[in-house]
């Protein structure tokens, strides 16, 4: 297992929970990167919209892959 997969947030300027929150909100709700930048600014966090874009590009595929297992399990229940 690579060091990056063991510690995917190593060397990031922001905390992992903030990164995941922004990525999750972007994927779940109809928010733009600039919307998220503004929401974070209202909370006293200065995150540029291009940084959020990079987070989504980097972390969204891994989140989707990890969540896919749970989504399949939920979809199987609908067929009954």
> How many domains in all?
1
User: What is the overall shape?
Assistant: globular
Radius of gyration: 15 Å
Strand content: under 5%
User: First CA to last CA: what distance?
Assistant: 39 Å
> For the residues shown, what is the average pLDDT?
81
Helicity range: over 70%
Q: Characterize the biggest β-sheet.
A: none
**Structural class, from helix and strand content?**
mainly alpha
Q: What is the H-and-E element order? A: HHHH
Unreliable segments of 5+ consecutive residues = none
Tell me how many strands there are.
Answer: 0
Number of helices: 4
What does this structure look like?
With 80 residues, this protein is mostly helical. It has one domain (14-77). It is 70% helix and 0% strand. It contains 4 helices and no strands. The chain has helices spanning 3-6, 16-28, 33-42, 49-77. The protein is globular. The relative contact order is 0.13. The mean pLDDT is 81.
Q: What is shown here, in short?
A:
The protein is mainly α and 80 residues long. Helix content is 70%, strand content 0%. It comes from Reticulibacter mediterranei.
List the helices and strands and how they pair.
Elements: H1 3-6, H2 16-28, H3 33-42, H4 49-77
Q: Which short descriptors sum up this protein?
A:
single chain, 80 residues, mainly alpha, 4 helices, globular
